[in-house]
Amino acid sequence: MKTLLAIWLLLCPLPLLADLSQLEYLTEHYPPYNYQEEGKAAGLAVEILKLVWQQSGTPEQPIRVVPWARGYYLLTQKPNVVLFSTARTAVRDPLFKWACPIGYSEIVLLALAKRNLTLTDESTLHAYTYSAVRFDVSEQLLLNRGLDDTRIMPANRLSQALRMLLSGRVDLVAAGALAAQQAMQELKVDPTLFHRAYTLSAETLCYAFNQSVNDETVNQFQQALTKVLASEQYQPLYKRFFP
User: Fold this and answer.
1) Tens of pLDDT along 151-165?
2) FRET partner for 25 with CA separation of 20 to 30 A, picked from 69, 201, 205, 221?
3) Distance of alpha carbon 184 from alpha carbon 81, whole angstroms
4) CATH code for 22-104+204-241?
5) Hey, is 5 helix, strand or coil?
6) pLDDT (tens digit, 9 = 90+) per residue, 47-104?
7) Which CATH fold topology does 105-203 show?
8) CATH topology of 22-104+204-241 equal to that of 105-203?
9) Residue boundaries of the structural domains of the chain
10) Rounded CA gap, 59 and 49, in Å?
11) Average pLDDT over residues 170-190
12) Strand, coil or helix: 57
């Protein structure tokens, strides 16, 4: 019996223990929550993370800015990875461990204003073509609603998806409303060229942890995050990025 137990323990993988200084922190371009500025990660979520480290007595750690598809892949495959800001959807919820909230994201469908296109309900989704950032929550929400994947043209960046819309290659772009505004500024295009045709969802933005991360580590992070959000430092910080 002891021999069988020893074999079973060897075959069953154990969760990897980690503390906040042993985690690998990844983020993407999603201003004002997270973005790259002068070669370094910046944004509200980055500043909150630095306060979490302070609150937990953790030395400041490296933060790597990567394309969303790359970050999401590493989150699913690599031990001890943390990815932010990640929308916590019903489908994603059991896949990762979470510390929340960083903020909230409204996921919308944008059309060209000149088309005056408005969707009345989800049954009309199947009549159109879309672009969305690959592996982004907006793409996943479309697929979760049963949309044929051949109707979705994936983009590496939201600015690329908006270019597809402007050129007439797709009917609609699925994106976070705030991220879409930022992408329009990057492209230097008039926001009045676009029209919100439908609201898909509103999701909580969080720090997402690979399943290998020990529960105690995630709980330690969540406790520090909760204290940061309740502290006197948070409101001035929020107004700095959302004036």
Assistant:
1) 999 999 999 999 999
2) 201
3) 31
4) 3.40.190.10
5) helix
6) 999 999 999 999 999 999 999 999 999 999 999 999 999 999 999 999 999 999 999 9
7) D-Maltodextrin-Binding Protein; domain 2 (3.40.190)
8) yes
9) 22-104+204-241, 105-203
10) 11
11) 95
12) coil
